[in-house]
Write a structure and sequence with these properties.
18% strand, seven-stranded mixed sheet, alpha/beta, binds S-adenosylmethionine
Length: 257
């Protein structure tokens, strides 16, 4: 099963990648967990991840966008939600999904091919979010779900997402964030740092699920992340906290360049 583009597919020794943001280590980590990625996503989030992506699709698929790009698309779940939402609204939107880990994208492509609707299924391609192979202003909307945190240079990734959008287009980021309520944060962190890495390792055989809470704890959220996104788009950012603030949808309009 071929996907467009072509990066070498390499797994790496697991001790190398934990905490590393080298592209080869990140790609190796996602390659290693790709067979169990979807199962663990839904299990560890008690299926809430599906609701979050659906919420994103409902909120961003407005104004009949002709072309949408989902970066760091992984196994394609957000691209599928965006496509389904477009169909629901009667839009003829073309959705492109890109990711730099071929084995993740291949799983996405398999899922796209099982969707009904022929021409309207998302297009899958292998591409680095820090160097997107599209001309400036190609898309009406660029999205990313739980991916930007893993990009080696977050500012460069956001700037690329903004660049490939037209002026007036939008960039949408769904990312984990810290719940602001102390009791909820305490309960959540016990689960996130205690239970999740253990279950994740048991099922995937990988320490990627130790990396996950650590990477979230280090990643900017709320106002701080909004500033980063605003620097990239030149526009203001609106925030939609989800499930007590465990995740947040950030939305920004691309301003005149
Ligand atoms: C946690 S997964 C998220 C996948 C999907 N968006 C979802 O909602 O489940 C992060 C994805 O980001 C991809 N990724 C990380 N850095 C990247 C980069 N620089 N360019 C493209 N993809 C990248 C990884 O390959 C991985 O598939």
């Amino acid at each position: 099963m071929a996907v467009e583009g072509g990066n070498p597919e390499q797994g790496v020794g697991e001790e190398r990648f934990v905490g590393s943001k080298r592209p080869s280590d990140i790609r190796g980590m996602f390659h290693d967990i790709s067979p169990t990625y979807d199962f663990l996503n839904h299990l560890l989030s008690l299926n809430i991840d599906r609701r979050w992506r659906r919420f994103v699709a409902r909120n961003v698929m407005t104004g009949n966008p002709a072309r949408v790009l989902d970066v760091c698309a992984g196994t394609g779940d957000l691209a599928i939600e965006l496509t389904n939402e477009a169909r629901r609204c009667g839009f003829a939107t073309k959705v492109t999904a890109s990711d730099f880990t071929p084995s993740m994208m291949r799983r996405g492509k398999n899922k796209f091919e099982q969707m009904e609707g022929g021409d309207e299924i998302p297009r899958a391609m292998v591409a680095d979010t820090m160097r997107l192979p599209f001309s400036t202003g190609t898309f009406d909307l660029a999205t990313v779900a739980f991916g930007i945190r893993n990009v080696t240079d977050v500012g460069a990734g956001l700037a690329e997402m903004a660049r490939v959008c037209r002026v007036g287009g939008r960039v949408a980021v769904l990312e984990f964030s810290q719940p602001r309520n102390r009791l909820i944060a305490w309960c959540y962190n016990r689960y996130f740092f205690g239970v999740l890495p253990w279950v994740g390792r048991l099922i995937s055989g990988s320490r990627a699920y130790t990396y996950l809470p650590k990477s979230v704890a280090k990643f900017p959220d709320g106002e701080e992340f909004s500033r980063l996104l605003s620097q990239a788009t030149g526009g203001e950012v609106t925030r939609h906290p989800l499930t007590f603030g465990v995740a947040t949808l950030y939305l920004s309009i691309v301003a005149e360049r």
